[in-house]
Amino acid sequence: MSDNILNLRSRSDSSGVSRKRWLVGENEVTHYYADMSESSKSRPDEYDPITDYHHLKFQNRCLRGSGDDFQQLFEDIMVRARPGEFERVRPYGKFGDRKCDGLIQAEGTIFQVYSPDELKQSEVQKKIDKDLDGAVAHWGDALKTWFFVYNVRRGVPPDILGTLREKQKHYPNIKIDHLSNDDLWEITRGLSVEQRNEILGLPPSSTAKIKQIPALLTNSQEHEINWKDICRGMLPIELDANPLISGDGVTLGIEDIVPLDLVERKERPKPTRDSSPENSQQALEDQEMPLRYNQFFDRVLTQCRSLNQQGKGVAIIGEPGAGKTTLLCAIADWLMKQGELPIFISLQDLEAGLEPYLLETWLRNAIRKRKAPEQLQDDLIEQCNTGQVWLLLDGVDEMAQSNQSLSTLAKEFRGWVGDTRIVLTCRVNVWEANKNELRSKFEVYRSRGFRDEEQLIFIQNFFKKANQVETGSKLIGKLKNAPPRLKDLIKNPLWITLLCRTWKQQQGKLPATKAELYQRFTKTFYDWKDKLYLPEEKRPLLERALGELAKNAIDREDFRFRLRETFIRQELDKFDSSLFGIACELGWINKLGSAVENPDEPVYAFLHPTFQEYFAALALSKYSNPLVLTHHIFEPHWKEVILIAAGIINNPIDFLRELKGRIDKFLVENDKLQDFLVWADNKSFSIIKLSPDIKYKPAAIRAFYLQFLSPRFVRLFLSTQLISKIDAQFAEDWNTNSSDYNSDPCKELVLDVYLMIALDYAYQRLEDVGRNIDNDYIATYPDYYVKLSMNLSSDTKFKEKLEVLLVELESRQDENSMLRLYKWWQINHKAWIQNFLKLITEHRDIGWNWNFSRRELELLMNYIDANELLIDCANETSIELVLREEIKEELLLPSITYIANVLSEEKS
């Protein structure tokens, strides 16, 4: 016999049953139980009450826990059975778990844990082959003993011993053995009562309570809840019933709407020490990194499943109709296949917080009981604690009080809820609000929409399902000459779906705006419902009533998209008491469930949130004074309503003029922000003067410099979104020709960016005094960007002064000693930064300390967002191109009144 593997000391537990050593023989698989008679095993009927309690708790965890939970149980036992010797192993990035779920390194012992829902011989064979062969490949001669640890939940286990004997023939120099959950219990029973309490919990205080436990646990197991089935049953089924998905006989599957590419929002990479022009492109790479659909699942979600990723959520953001909910459904399906427990929550249902919603509303609906038992609530919490539960939170923007939804959610992710993995969806404008307390806690991915070739595939698939291939070909032909605005619009899954459904019913002219597409779909929607007779003359009344309902709901902070029946009837009955029934029958509004605070009160929602916004825009544009909408220009939840209304209003010029006037007045009383706008305007003129051949619009250059709020803002948030809407050529040159920065017209702009990033790194070094010195730390000294700036500048005097500052840094660098630069910087950093600031303000007019307050930053961001919305509104209207260009030319300018006052003060 070989030496004792676990080295468990022979001792007696509280029942007096002697424990035997666990031995592994030579050349063949033997086992602790292989040579033992049944009478030698411990007998539960001989256990004392405490051991009996621990045994039942152990069985419960093995039967009901996840695979990860069984591995955690195994590890908790082993670190106590072999203290100081057994090592836990966790997967790490691309290295995985090295085919090892635990090891005793000094003995060369590797453990592999396996706990599927059901043990099948073929799957066990594959698992043993793959893991043992992988362990041999990775560990080589260091591997002396290999254990296969498995959990038998139900039924008779397969011939594991025979499988291991066959593997032993292939690896005669490695001792191969196994541990079942029964074996683990025998090891657990050999631990002290205190150690067992740590693993399995303290038993009840009285003997009477202990005697009740077997009956309670047995009853629990007889009525065991299958969490996978429950989670699957609670996943949304609305996709199948939604007319947008399955209307007019053409049913779209998740696979039709996704795969959609995403873009990952990344911080800019740290620079290398190489400042050559050919390496300068990495310095200004867009912070949005393209990510293919399959990569999102293979890399992002797989890594998120690792325990190392716990606490970092995933946020999927996008415009309305971008496929966020559909992608979340695809994620739920993927998680189910991985053996995880996805809980899908529509956040418009959330009224009292995540914790009470999960334990009361969700669980009550899942088991179809009036109240969820406490034992079941505790079990759900335990499932969350294992890290196997994923909360899929759909529609942050649809929460009540959506202007505070992000800060509200941030407070929810704590305790056992914080032990879950979280994937949420949110509209872009809500996520990018200034008070976003979740941004640092989530990896952010934005739906990129369909690419041109994917649009064609979607259209072909749609009309193939409709058996109208030729109709689809005609639509594709029409789209070849469609205006850019429409091509951009149908990148969105919702809009291309609406286009296909309306084109299927009536070919002809393509819609020009988003509003026109809504109007066409509305007509098509009525055609689908022709069995439900609604006189055509009554449609305007219904739409007006729905518009008033939608408008008044959006204006409510306590609910916007989840509408109580009493509220709906109150609004619709103002027009006609029959409209509530008609709207429900047609499907414009659909029942969701009941109100949390009153289970007898039904709640409803519009067909899709965007249709609520469409009807609100319709009511305000056709049946009210549309200029009222301009009062909401700075409120994010009104953005889509304003945009749709712009395409409906009969006199769009007055509407746009009113919007522009409100935007211009927004900052007029803040002198500091007006100064900033004056500086950006002056800077754009200086750039045009330095580059006479530049063809970019001054407003686009102003937008570019409005991002120079601070050095760090430039480095992290440099974006071309607003710029591209003002001047598409500017954005294209910046994004596609960014490697050729030595040529006009980008050179002067890039030079200023490099100088600001150099300043940011200089400031960072002030913040990092006392941190460990390493290559990353040295790499982010400002000299890298100072070198790049010198390569770009054509101003001889400026370059000479810049070189002096660069020499001060480089002369202190020594590859053999990083301390020299570090020590010099601690003493001289203030003087160096002051000299650098003086140089770039005098020669480049950048680097000013605007010292904006948080409130001023919020005002400025709202101002910039409103200007972007103004451009979008202009594009939605039918006004002439020349008028649109005039609007763009006058964007982002300081107030004329402010300039007049400044000039007057200067004269006096």
From TrEMBL:
<dbReference type="InterPro" id="IPR054501">
    <property type="entry name" value="NCH2"/>
</dbReference>
<dbReference type="InterPro" id="IPR003593">
    <property type="entry name" value="AAA+_ATPase"/>
</dbReference>
<feature type="compositionally biased region" description="Basic and acidic residues">
    <location>
        <begin position="263"/>
        <end position="276"/>
    </location>
</feature>
<dbReference type="InterPro" id="IPR007111">
    <property type="entry name" value="NACHT_NTPase"/>
</dbReference>
<dbReference type="InterPro" id="IPR027417">
    <property type="entry name" value="P-loop_NTPase"/>
</dbReference>
<protein>
    <submittedName>
        <fullName>Putative NTPase (NACHT family)</fullName>
    </submittedName>
</protein>
<dbReference type="Pfam" id="PF22727">
    <property type="entry name" value="NCH2"/>
</dbReference>
<feature type="region of interest" description="Disordered">
    <location>
        <begin position="263"/>
        <end position="287"/>
    </location>
</feature>
<feature type="domain" description="AAA+ ATPase">
    <location>
        <begin position="310"/>
        <end position="450"/>
    </location>
</feature>
<dbReference type="Pfam" id="PF05729">
    <property type="entry name" value="NACHT"/>
</dbReference>
